[in-house]
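Incident review: delayed structure delivery

Summary: a single-chain prediction request sat in the queue longer than the usual turnaround. Root cause was a stuck worker, restarted by the on-call engineer. No data loss occurred. The affected request and its eventual output are reproduced below so the record is complete for anyone auditing the incident later.

Affected input:
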Amino acid sequence: MLNFSNFQDFIGMNSFYNCFFAFIRFVHLNINNIMLLNAKNMLKGFFWVIAL
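Output delivered after worker restart:
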């Protein structure tokens, strides 16, 4: 007889890890975009400071 609690735990863990890794991929892409934007803004600020 199949142990349903273990089976459900297995499915639950798989869906949890899939959601977790999807979330990490999403955050990683967003962090890259945010860092690029921040780098551009920091360069602009740097040039403003030099200009002043």
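Verification: The two ends are 78 Å apart (CA to CA).
Action items: add queue-age alerting; document worker restart procedure.
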